[in-house]
Design a protein that fits this description.
Number of strands: 23
CATH topology of the largest domain: D-amino Acid Aminotransferase, Chain A, domain 1
Largest sheet: 8 strands, mixed
Number of domains: 2
Helix content: 10-25%
Strand content: 35-45%
């Protein structure tokens, strides 16, 4: 695989901010598997060239690999997909950014045969993907299509989510069939991810008051910083208490006696190569434990 840092290209970036509880009650809800990887824009000039771009305006471009060699046979267009090594753990991708073993699974198309189709309903864009003749994930193939299911009730969605979570996938992306793709934020698409709720010790707090976050962890070690979910007043009141119990410091944190526990919501564990839990994904404060 060949890679380089590329500047100056532009793709529309749609941010999914819908409430899955609301979308769950919609009939004919499109539910696609959320792979744990990195979003890519696959730009294809049929029979000539295919390249992967991982960020808007400035990021890594990839080419000359099994993915792009297969993609060059697709109709010209811009396809959106998830680049992955282990589809259940994005952090394996971070250790294999230039591996020829990386795979791509497509979940949308916004330009097809030199025509901009962003304003097509998602249901029509999905048909275009399914007619490409690619296998559906999981497949022993560098290029595939993300699987999708249609639910008609909240009960259907709950049963599907339970099945997906039991297989240790990150979750689902929920879309209304009428949704379009544009540069901005939409409430017609939502992510449904498995949530974990844990009670953790506060090990300290960050030195910079402007970005104050609590250093949290289990009985053995600190795992992550938690700043989301706390109001500024809560952060300041906790800091005033913790500063009375400082026992050490690092470059970025004050370390305190472990007297305070909080309940935290997060979206899974980050593990090292040995499989040990190293951190938490997106911890959010829920409440104090007294």
């Amino acid at each position: 695989m060949k890679t380089s840092i590329s500047k100056g290209y532009y793709f529309p970036e749609l941010h999914f901010r819908g409430d899955w509880h609301i979308l769950a009650m919609q009939p004919q809800l499109h539910c696609s598997l959320k792979l744990d990887g990195e979003k890519q824009s696959l730009v294809v000039n049929h029979g000539t060239d295919a390249r992967l771009y991982n960020k808007v305006n400035y990021g890594r471009m990839r080419w000359d690999c099994p993915i792009t060699k297969e993609a060059v046979n697709l109709p010209s267009g811009t396809y959106l997909g998830e680049l992955y090594d282990n589809p259940k753990d994005v952090y394996t991708l971070l250790r294999a950014k230039t591996s020829d073993k990386l795979c791509l699974s497509l979940w949308d198309v916004i330009e097809f045969e030199r025509q901009n189709i962003q304003n097509y309903p998602y249901s029509d864009r999905r048909v275009i993907l399914e007619n490409l003749g690619l296998p559906t994930f999981p497949a022993n193939f560098p290029l595939s299509i993300v699987p999708e299911w249609i639910t008609s009730s909240a009960a259907d969605l709950e049963a599907l989510a339970t099945k997906i979570f039991s297989q240790n996938y990150e979750g689902l992306v929920l879309r209304l069939g009428s949704s379009t793709y544009f540069d901005g934020t939409t409430s017609l698409v939502a992510k449904l991810k498995k949530e974990y709720h844990e009670t953790l010790w506060v090990w300290g707090y960050s030195k910079q008051a402007k970005i104050l976050s609590l250093l949290i962890g289990n009985d053995q070690k600190p795992l992550a910083h938690c700043g989301s979910g706390l109001t500024f007043e809560e952060k300041e009141s906790v800091r005033q208490v913790l500063k009375q119990h400082i026992i050490g410091q690092t470059k970025s944190d004050f370390l305190t006696e472990r007297r305070l526990q909080i309940k935290v919501k997060h979206y899974g564990y980050i593990r090292n190569e040995a499989g040990e839990v190293n951190s938490l994904r997106m911890p959010i404060f829920e409440n104090f434990v007294f």
